[in-house]
Every structure is written in structure tokens, then in C-alpha cells.
Specification:
Structural class: alpha+beta
Oligomer: single chain
Shape: globular
């Protein structure tokens, strides 16, 4: 993991706390809709970790301008990664993307866009891939990494309908540090209980059963990347057979 002093001090803050009031209308709308959805007491949101983080104030938001390419998000992550451990066990970076008339509207189109964002982030990452994380996405212990931090990544799009837990009016990517799950292994009571609650909530929240792709990190047969961007019906999936992510060769930028 990168140290604090490896992050340039010249970067102006691209992070905001959930309680802050963004300056632009679309940013305020995205933040309001997100908080309203996670804190809805009548329709419980499935991700208990995200709900807990929002209530604790340990989430961080970033609002990605439409013309910034990946540079704005990359700098937001450069701020977030060294900060994350100090925010506690329940934290994530939620990146909302400004609407763009040229953005793809279909599930498959937004999936391609999602993987291109992750690829572009990796291609700008100055840190080497962590030695403890496999380089092959088919490995059960693979996870996306940035600045040396493994992170579980979740995409939400306006194209999702039946899988409401992956729907959001704005294209959104959430980066959850791997350490968030350190005390929630599938073979631990706390981990089993958390998974039971989440899957029960998924069944109530979505109009489609939980995806069969859900697995446990490091367990045989699990592939984390297949859970990053989910289809909408468990049948006609736009998912690829192979992970689109390509690890940069050592020594290249």
C-alpha cells in the first residue's frame, strides 16, 4: 500500500463527506438520491456495510466531471487510498459520474464503459501490482488494485431494472477496500451472518434472484471480477467469458 508521503500534496481535494453539500445541481441530486436509497427504512438496502458506512460518516464521495477522462477519478483514489484505513472498517469511495449524452445506455454498453474505466485507472497507477494478489482474474484471490490497495468494485447503472440493487440514476462505481471484509470470512460466524442478511435482503429488494456468481473471496470456484458488474436477469447476461481487465506488464506505465 502506498504511504501518505507518496501522494502529491499539490492535488486539491476531490473527496467529500456524505454530510457535505456539493456545489453543482447534479452532484447534490446524486448524493441525495444515494443517501435516500441506502437509509430507506421501508425498503431495506441489501448492502449492510454501505448503509453502516453512510450512517457512520466513513463513506467518501467523489463527483467525476464528464470531460475529465479518468484523471479526476485517479486523483480522487490517490487521496482516498492512504486515508481509508483511518476511516475505519466500514468505508468505501463512491464515484458518481456526471451524465453525458454520449454515454452508452444499454447494459452491455455500460459494462464496456465500466471495464474501460478500471483499465484506464490501472494504466495510470504508478504503483506495482501487490505481491500478495494474483495477477490472473480467474484466481479466486484476485482483486482489482490501485496504489497497492486491493478493492472490491461495484457498478451501478441506469440500465439496470430488475436487479434494483444495481440500479442508480447516475453511472456509479463503488470501491470497497479489501480490509472491509477481513473479519467477515465465510467460515466465521460474523461473516456467515452478514451474508445471510444480505442475501435475504437481495431477495426482497430485487425482482430477480441473487446471482449465482456470488462467492467468497479466496474460495475455490470464486471469481471476484464476475461480481463487479452484474446482469439484470441471470439469463441474458452481457458478461464476458473472460475478464476484460489486462494487467500491465512489469516495468511499463
Amino acid at each position: 500500500m502506498a504511504h501518505r508521503d507518496s501522494i502529491p500534496n499539490t492535488i486539491s481535494s476531490r473527496l467529500s463527506e456524505p454530510s457535505a453539500s456539493p456545489s453543482l445541481n447534479w452532484e447534490r441530486d446524486a448524493a441525495h438520491r444515494f443517501a435516500e436509497r441506502l437509509l430507506d427504512r421501508d425498503r431495506l438496502f441489501p448492502c449492510v456495510f454501505g448503509v453502516d458506512a453512510l450512517r457512520r460518516g466513513s463513506l467518501r464521495f467523489t463527483f467525476v466531471p464528464r470531460d475529465s477522462g479518468v484523471s479526476y477519478l485517479a486523483e480522487a483514489l490517490r487521496e482516498y487510498v492512504p486515508l481509508a484505513p483511518d476511516l475505519g472498517k466500514r468505508t468505501s469511495l463512491v464515484a458518481f459520474f456526471e451524465p453525458d449524452d454520449d454515454d452508452p445506455r444499454t447494459l452491455a454498453g455500460q459494462q464496456r464503459h465500466f471495464w474501460q474505466v478500471l483499465q484506464d485507472l490501472h494504466d495510470t497507477d504508478p504503483e506495482p501490482w501487490p505481491d500478495e494478489i494474483p495477477t490472473d482474474p480467474a484466481n479466486p484471490s484476485w482483486e482489482f488494485c490501485f496504489l497497492g490497495m486491493p478493492m472490491f468494485v461495484v457498478a451501478n447503472t441506469s440500465a439496470h431494472r430488475r436487479r434494483a440493487s444495481r440500479f442508480f440514476e447516475y453511472f456509479t462505481i463503488t470501491f470497497q477496500p479489501r480490509f472491509v471484509f477481513d473479519d467477515l470470512a465465510a467460515d466465521q460466524p460474523q461473516g456467515r451472518n452478514a451474508r445471510k442478511i444480505i442475501r435475504e435482503r437481495l431477495r426482497a429488494y430485487d425482482a430477480v434472484p441473487p446471482t449465482p456468481l456470488l462467492g467468497s473471496f479466496g474460495k475455490p470456484g470464486n471469481q471476484e471480477w464476475t461480481q463487479y458488474y452484474l446482469d439484470d436477469d441471470n439469463r441474458s447476461s452481457p458478461a464476458q467469458d473472460r475478464c476484460p481487465f489486462v494487467l500491465r506488464e512489469k516495468g511499463t506505465k
